[in-house]
């Protein structure tokens, strides 16, 4: 059903892997929205502080003035509201539970060690790298397997949960000094496959641009 | 015939959430107590990724992570709804459930650890309590005045937090510093939607007192062994 008077705003920051989830979900549903940029590390806007007073973080989806915080929760919201097009979660409750399980795993096991590859030094950095690779391999083996997508034959919730990390692969492997292709070839192939979808290709930034801002960050903090 | 098994720890708030949901729906299930020091092969096979309880096994198929299981129970079995119908209310329920669930590590650090880890844990728990104290002012349930998903997730804060305080002697919450939270908590453990489903407080307290003193005894033993 066309909702002509819907006002959808996305508070987001272009390199955010979490924001990317919402961009892809909204694109899958062909929902028109206004992208409002918040620079993470800059001064937080009054709109952000009003819409996410508890965490004060992006992304925030604002639908007709009402905020939805936490990216995976917002993706489920998008799936439930714009339910007539491109289902993101499977219809079977057991498959849904598996999808939520893996999305939770992605949320808990990747960000912190991934960050250590570019924000830490010495032993801490090495530990982060090892942990990241270990968790990525679990994802590759147990969640993806030999299927084209995490959702099976079609792109779905877990693919959306993970796709933002794909744009950070170059940053992780360059600063972490390892090769994603060597460690997790199926994940790399999966990412390339997803990029053939317009909803993904127009939502993800150029991985090299992410690398560049992290390089700037590292120079600023004396990590280079 | 549908077969439902639950692998859990009787003293765990995470296992309790799942049992609670099953009872709300009137689902018959077989409960299997696990030993944290000797996990069964069934548990390890059913949750190879995390190797943790609770795990629900429905017709041979396992589901892990307590609130994921609660949603599964809500979607699969007939009975009173646990999540609301409206998508915005559902998002709010999930938001608060996640907020409450994300503080587990900080809670463990506050009551079971020492030194710097404990201090960091305490800071995080304090910040969480400030937010809850503000949110729960004059509120009985998290979303729309109706008992549901977030209130199930709140069992840790509603009951177990107090038990950890009493059992460890580490005091973070008082009615002076968090009056609204305490008012909510006292109502929570006594209200009809919650009270009949809670495990016996005395038994839990005795368990945690023993557990926490054993944990700190082994921590001091390893500290003195290092000297």
Explain what this protein looks like in three dimensions.
The complex is a heterodimer of chains A (224) and B (227). Chain A has 224 residues and is α+β, with helices and mostly antiparallel strands. Chain A contains 12 helices and 4 strands. The mean pLDDT of chain A is 96. Chain B is α+β, with helices and mostly antiparallel strands and 227 residues long. Chain B is built from 11 helices and 4 strands. Chain B has a 4-stranded mixed β-sheet, covered by helices on one side. In chain B, a hairpin with a 2-residue loop joins strand 3 and strand 4. In chain B, helix 8 crosses helix 11 (201-226). At the A-B interface, strand 4, helix 3 and helix 4 of A face strand 4, helix 3 and helix 4 of B.
What is the structure about, briefly put?
The complex is a heterodimer of chains A (224) and B (227). By secondary structure, chain A is an alpha+beta fold.
